[in-house]
Design brief:
single chain; 221 residues; alpha+beta; six-stranded antiparallel β-barrel
Length: 221
């Protein structure tokens, strides 16, 4: 899914600070979590070296990130540039851009324990987060807890994402169940109207997902 946002109509700006501390002003064309496109109008558009490291400040949304010049093209009487944003900037942009597709990432590299609550049960079931996005998650549950969970459509979830200091608590609807090895995988869709502060929780999940995706796709050092 292309999570890009065309910003031609709003005429926002991007300020480009070069290593020489020169600040250049361009028109922001497109912003995505992984990159930014900007346009310098006019025959005296400045030239930027490919692979140069720069600092970009967007006016809408207001944010500053570090980036590298990766592409330049002549368009009309101006120049169009594309910048690749660094890993921290991708997390920041992914969180701030307010129209975003759900990014689902596997969490198998580190175990994230999940407590699952169902109405009428004397205790919570214990599971491990298998993957997660802004809209839902899958959880691996031991077969001995299936008798407690199988008849429930609504569940409560509580877990702590790595790097996040506060547990997430969400209401969810069970959409599917499947035997996977010696565990049962529950596919759960989050319920925004039944989850307090759901929008804030979504932003925290999205920041985690973008960070994990950047780590997964980063070239080995």
């Amino acid at each position: 899914m292309d999570r890009s946002f065309n910003l031609y109509t709003e005429q926002p700006l991007v300020l480009i600070q070069t290593p020489a501390d020169e600040v250049l002003e361009a028109r922001l064309v497109k912003a995505r979590p992984d990159g930014i496109e900007a346009y310098f109008a006019g025959p005296r558009a400045p030239a930027l070296p490919i692979a140069e490291l720069v600092t970009l400040t967007l006016t809408q949304p207001e944010v500053t990130v570090n980036a590298r010049v990766v592409y330049c093209q002549v368009e009309g009487v101006g120049l169009s540039y594309r910048f690749d944003v660094d890993a921290q900037g991708r997390v920041t942009l992914g969180t701030l851009l307010n129209q975003r597709g759900a990014v689902r990432v596997s969490t198998s590299t580190s175990a994230i324990d999940v407590a699952m609550f169902v109405k009428g049960a004397e205790r919570s079931a214990r599971g491990v987060l298998n993957d997660i996005s802004e809209t839902g998650a899958s959880v691996l549950v031991a077969t001995e807890d299936e008798a407690m969970l199988f008849a429930s459509i609504r569940v409560g979830l509580e877990f702590l994402l790595p790097g996040d200091g506060k547990p997430l608590r969400l209401a969810g609807s069970v959409r599917n169940r499947a035997l996977v090895g010696s565990a049962i995988r529950y596919g759960i869709q989050f319920l925004p109207k039944e989850t307090p502060d759901f929008e804030a929780i979504q932003k925290r999940i999205y920041a985690f997902a973008i960070k994990r995706e950047v780590e997964r796709t980063a070239p080995p050092r």
